[in-house]
Write a structure and sequence with these properties.
Layout (H helix, E strand, L loop, with lengths): L2 H13 L5 H8 L3 H13 L3 E7 L2 E6 L2 H26 L8 E4 L2 H14 L3 E6 L1 H16 L3 E6 L8 E4 L5 H8 L2 E7 L3 E8 L2 E7 L2 H24 L1 H10 L1 H7 L3
Parallel strand pairs: 4-5, 5-6
Antiparallel strand pairs: 1-2, 3-9, 4-7, 7-8, 8-9
Helix pairs in contact: 1-2, 1-3, 2-3, 5-6, 8-9, 9-10
Organism: Actinomadura fulvescens
InterPro entries: TrmB-like (IPR051797), Tscrpt_reg_TrmB_N (IPR002831), WH-like_DNA-bd_sf (IPR036388), WH_DNA-bd_sf (IPR036390)
Protein name: Transcription regulator TrmB N-terminal domain-containing protein
């Protein structure tokens, strides 16, 4: 609906009885010069009905809000179905794999939700409870439609798919070491969101480059494998390895 149509419809709903164009204009703020044109558009689309109580007096009643919302939903879903078949037919193959920066938390989580929603085969996440709170519903929906979900959780989250709780090292130790909460979300090993959250700020990237997505997925898989290994052999034994093995010491040495 246009702005005037929306205002006129709300005025009709709030009235609770048939009202004429003059009353609609007074209650809604729609100019009197355009109110009858606006009401005509509502009637034409079935959102309102004319009620002739007298030969020279016309009132208007709205389609009930529940019915209107159901109708709009059906129309919207129909448009989406049409676009779903039409757009791929005209889409050109990208000349390069998409990659772009994400400069705030809302944009990063919205892009992560896109990746989760688009996954059809597998989904890998490395995530903290603060960010998982927004992603959980979509991740659960992915699991329910048959996506193989693997989550490395830095803290307590509700189980969904296969959850590996990061105990080695403890989440607080990881946070102290990195200085921020890292998030990795990979869908079907073809697109990924990688970023960080700290002190109210957030930054990261989205990439549809399969090489980037594969590396991000491998990061989550290796971290999950480390948690399984720590559970099996014990954290103390792993600590001994990391403190004494020359190969591990070289890889973990800080420059």
């Amino acid at each position: 609906m246009s702005g005037y149509e929306s205002k006129a419809y709300v005025a009709l709903v709030a009235a609770g009885k048939p009202i004429n164009g003059y009353e609609v204009a007074k209650r809604s703020g729609v100019p009197r010069s355009t109110v009858y044109e606006t009401l005509g558009k509502l009637v034409a689309r079935g959102a309102a009905y004319e009620v002739r109580e007298e030969p020279d007096a016309t009132g208007y009643l709205p389609l009930p809000p529940e019915a209107l919302l159901d109708r709009l939903r059906r129309e919207f879903d129909g448009s989406l179905d049409a676009l779903k078949s039409a757009l791929p037919a005209v889409a050109a193959e990208p000349e390069a794999h998409l990659i772009h920066g994400l400069r705030d938390g809302a944009a990063m989580l919205a892009r992560a939700e896109d990746v989760v929603a688009g996954a059809r085969r597998d989904l890998f996440l490395s995530v903290w409870p603060e960010e998982m709170a927004q992603l959980h519903e979509g991740v659960r929906a992915a699991s329910e439609r048959g996506v193989d979900v693997s989550v490395v959780a830095f803290g307590e989250i509700e189980d969904v798919g296969h959850v590996y709780r990061h105990r080695y090292s403890a989440p607080q130790a990881v946070l102290d070491d990195l200085g921020y909460r890292l998030i990795v979300v990979v869908g079907d090993r073809r697109e990924a969101v990688v970023g960080g959250f700290a002190d109210g700020a957030a930054w990261g990237i989205y990439s549809a480059d399969p090489a980037v997505a594969l590396m991000a997925a491998e990061y989550v898989r290796q971290d999950a494998a480390l948690q399984i290994l720590a559970d099996r052999v014990g954290a103390a034994e792993l600590d001994r390895w990391f403190a004494s093995d020359p190969g591990l010491l070289r890889l973990l040495r800080r420059s």
